[in-house]
Amino acid sequence: MTDTVFPTWRLYAPANFCSSMFPKRFLQNLRTLSVANIATNIHSQICNLSMQGNLEEALSLLYTHDTTHSSMPIQTYATLFHACAKRKCLQHGMALHHYVIDKNPGAQNDLFLTNHIINMYCKCGHLEYAHHVFDKMLHRNVVSWTALISGYAQSGLVRECFSLFSSLLGSFCRPNEFAFASLLSACEEHDVKCGMQLHCLAIKSGLCSEVEVITALLKSYANVGGDIADCYRLFLETSQQDIVSWTAIMTVFAERDPEQTFLLFCQLHHESFLPDWHTFSISLKACAYFVTEQHALAVHSQVIKRGFHEDTVLCNALLHAYARCGSLSLSEQIFKEMNFCDLVTWNSMIKAYALHGQAKDALELFQQMNMHPDATTFVALLSACSHVGLVDQGVKIFNSMSDDHGIVPQLDHYACMVDLYGRAGQLSEAEDLIRKMPMKPDSVIWSSLLGSCRKYGETHLAKLAADKFTELAPNSSLGYVQMSNIYSSGGSFAEASLVRKEMRDSKVRKEPGLSWVQVGMRVHEFASGGQHHLERLAILSRLEILVGELKEIGYAPEINLALYDTEMEHKEDQLFHHSEKMALVFAIMNEEKFPLGGNVVKIMKNIRICVDCHNFMKLASYHLQKEITLRFPDYGFASWWNCWFRNTIYFIVIGERPIKRVQIAILWSTLLVACGVLGYVEIGEGTPCFHGHGRSNRERRPPCLELGQPSSNFCNLDNKEDTYSVASQSTAVSSAEFRVLCGSFFLERPQCAAPETALITQIPGFNGTFPSKHYAGYVTVDENHGRSLYYYFVTSEGKPSEDPVVLWLNGGPGCSSFDGFIYEHGPFNFEPAKSAGGLPTLHLNPFSWSKVSNILYLDSPAGVGFSYSKNQTDYITGDKKTAIDSHAFLLKWFQLYPEFLSNPFFISGESYAGVYVPTLAYEVAKGIDAGVKPKLNFKGYMVGNGVCDEEFDGNALVPFVHGMGLISEDLYQEVNVDCNGNFYNPLNDNCTSKLGKVDEVIEGINIYDILEPCYHATDSEEFNKETYIRLPSSFRKLGETSRPLPVRKRMFGRAWPLRAPVRAGIVPTWPELSNTNNVPCTDDRVATSWLNNEAVRKAIHAAEASLVSSWVLCTDAIYFNHDAGSMIEYHKNLTSKGYRALIFSGDHDMCVPFTGSEAWTRSLGYKIVDEWRPWSSNGQVAGFIQGYDKNLTFLTIKGAGHTVPEYKPQEALEFYKRFLAGSPI
What we know:
Blueprint: H1 17-21, H2 24-31, H3 35-51, H4 55-64, H5 74-87, H6 90-103, H7 111-123, H8 127-136, H9 142-154, H10 158-170, H11 177-185, H12 192-204, H13 211-223, H14 228-236, H15 243-254, H16 258-270, H17 277-287, H18 294-305, H19 312-324, H20 328-337, H21 343-355, H22 359-368, H23 375-388, H24 391-404, H25 411-423, H26 427-436, H27 443-456, H28 459-472, H29 478-489, H30 493-505, E1 515-519, E2 522-526, H31 536-552, H32 568-576, H33 579-589, E3 600-605, H34 611-624, E4 627-633, E5 649-654, H35 661-677, H36 725-728, H37 735-742, E6 774-782, E7 787-794, E8 805-809, H38 818-823, E9 828-831, E10 841-844, E11 854-859, E12 876-878, H39 879-896, E13 905-910, H40 913-929, E14 938-944, H41 950-954, H42 957-963, H43 969-979, H44 989-1002, H45 1025-1030, H46 1033-1036, E15 1065-1067, H47 1070-1074, H48 1085-1091, H49 1094-1099, E16 1119-1122, H50 1128-1136, E17 1140-1146, H51 1154-1163, E18 1168-1177, E19 1180-1188, E20 1192-1197, H52 1204-1207, H53 1209-1221
Helix pairs in contact: 3-4, 3-5, 5-6, 5-7, 7-8, 7-9, 8-9, 9-10, 9-11, 11-13, 12-13, 13-14, 13-15, 14-15, 15-16, 15-17, 16-17, 17-18, 17-19, 19-20, 19-21, 20-21, 21-22, 21-23, 22-23, 23-24, 23-25, 24-25, 25-26, 25-27, 26-27, 27-28, 27-29, 28-29, 29-30, 31-33, 31-34, 39-40, 40-50, 43-44
Protein name: DYW domain-containing protein
Family: Belongs to the PPR family. PCMP-H subfamily.
Subcellular location: Secreted
């Protein structure tokens, strides 16, 4: 290198610099030492200065004592290059590089030092020099490659990054985790395929569990809009999580699911990770989406504890969060106490004032700014002017942007100006501004103009705005709805009808207007007219009285807002029955259940409020002497808002877009806890959690990834009594009570109407955090008899608001669905108790079906598990009665959990549920066809190793045992000839004799899985002789093994004796067959001991012992009649209607062999659309599949027994997930 390329190092070492920088005694001491000792001292001083950030002093010390260069350690130069890179001091770095070449030429060949030089040039953005040094290297290692790749990645040069990475692989140098992390950081939206390829390569390289790679993958997938559930799974796969990976996953959730970000913040705290600056910043960003300041207060307390309370960036985040949560006073307090205010600080405070309608304060603060404003500053100012109608002031500010500050207006500024003109009725000015815009208007601008046109009845301009808006947002109903309303308001009902028809033809649906109000601990939903509310008639009666009272003090219905051409009185009825009016009246009727004597009424609405309801609420507030808070989403315009009205009724705008129904419930529930229970009266005018200022709609809540129940100290992060002393000082509740109340802030699943008593907060035996929400309880299907069915509901760990709801039924008949919960696909794995009388230990099940679905375990019929009836005659039942009761259960259950009503719904089960499932599915489909409400979103069903038909099931065993090599070819041919293929109902003695030989050969094999040994408990009760003789011969020696300890191999009561298919008439239960609760080859003590523990029963909301004495897996308390006949006709009926069906079988089950299921599915005569082939899981053949027409699929699971998820949990989850998603298996 020459001096023309690198500035000479002497330029940075003036003669008097060192003498003025260091004490004379220090320099004198150096002169008395040897050269080697001097070099050592210089190295030590340089390292200390570099670590302290005194780069210039460190360089000066090196240059002044350049005579020691030959003895200077390489580490000294590396330390200085590192300091130059950290501070991005290119000139100092170049000078140092020249110095090394000049004074110590041999050092530049040192691999360690050269890597530091490359890193310095990359960090300083001089990639040309970095690549030049790299090309001159005699030897390279992975650090050399990684440093250069990282440099190109930081500069956004993706193509060059991948080119270097390819060269790295071609050089037979194995990339490390930092190389993958650097390359992944360069992947942008258009590089999603490259990111996936890197992910695969990282897996092959064994680096996918490294925290650096996982963190980079999280960021990469988040940037390209990847599924946040997949991101969370990646996070869980990290071999050693650190605060960086925690912060990364929180960043993924911050905007798309802020509740989960806060839950993650609490979780990392409880797992003893210390949040850093970045973690707090992301947490506060999420808190800005919440409705109250309680979340921000919790994070703020930790910021103070960690000593970050004076950090400007975190103070800005706090200021913004408090303002967005409705606490302007806290924002002002943060602003006044800050030691230094940057531009973001000023903008945030101005925006806070604008958000709260304090335009005067925003303008005054702008005048006090001691720095130049930017584009964000003017967005906040124009928004403030728009909300209070300061048109002249707003125009002046807009013009000053380019004239006085040199800032070119962007889309956001024009949107504010259009809104400003529109609110003030200056529509021609708004239209003229849009035409003169230097860029193309977006949907927000047209929606703002459209809203203003509706307010002022400007039909022609509204049509233009609606057309433009629909063109930009074709899936939004806003344009159609507004135009229909404008035509209706003007009396043009024919045109309004045409607009609505056009919307239907475009398959665009309008979200129905709904309102919610919380009374006591329940959230009540109202549609127009309160159609489905139990107290509808009483509400309408009270509403009629209130309307009459308000008319006497000046209320005049805005009948021009009626949307249909009807008589005058009917038009008034349309207005009177709006959902928010119904909610208000219901709240008044129950005011004794409200805090503060019912003086504050809070209503949530999912769409804009009309002018008539505005006037109605205003007068109702005056007449009733109550403060009414109505919260609703804003579409980017609030043209109806009269600012003088805020002192009487508080309207809180939620972002710029309509929010989802399921989101509103949790917002409202949180609001009531904060403002009702704790005694807060005024909520403020801020914007809460789920929708921010951005222009794009947030996706429906995923939920996701639900992190489980908060403990009682979840909000109090320090677990100290005084953490929330400031927040709770205005109420009488104690700090401990306050923490319990705050628990409801962190519910990750909105509960529109779910009974609060159903929520499960803890389970004995499990000490961790639930991965999702759990509910349990009873639904009464017959009030007269007191017939109640027990359920246990586990919400999805993925996206509970979208994932399917799957009903699980076990067989028997008479067996509890806790069979599936405990032993198969429930959320926990059970470890037997270590001591007699102890409880089993519960661990999370990595293959739980709740990973991808909301799963509902049902004990049915009454008398099974925890289900019961107060009328003993109900225990005489059968297939059809069970199906009817289960259908009644579903209808009532979905009324309790309406937020899941739109989710796809499936029915699933195994063994005798081969009857339960299709008969229930038939009832559900029949109800849907008949218009029964609520309408279930039924999509299909699954049956595993299920009974179906007497003939097909009975004939399945012999071909199965022959195919599995359990009987000889000669015996098979003999029995086949003598029985003529009719094995289930032998017609001659020869056939019976040969079938007896078959029984003798296979009688010692485990019926549930022919590969599994049998357990015979040494302490089990002996069967009496009579009972023993009654048992099939194949069962008499089952379980006689040398195993000394009982180990559960298969579940009690789920199978029938060999060649004993379910026939019409009374079906015997296993307890009836054996006359005991013990069955050979089984041991169910884990389930029995756990579910009969008093603490467990209380935790899962099981009935008292007086109603359900003791839990048994399979009961003999019912008298069950198989009265539905063959299931084949049921399957034909359901599949012909388009419902999807999956029939799956473990291919080693001898109880209900797969040969029977394969035969009856083939007998339906459907066309084969997917010929017999293997299907794979985890890269291995997992079984075989054959697909038929009409969405019927038959599938086997290789190596599985009777209860497939118990034997092959990973494979079971795989086909289950694919079937629910409608993906190829």
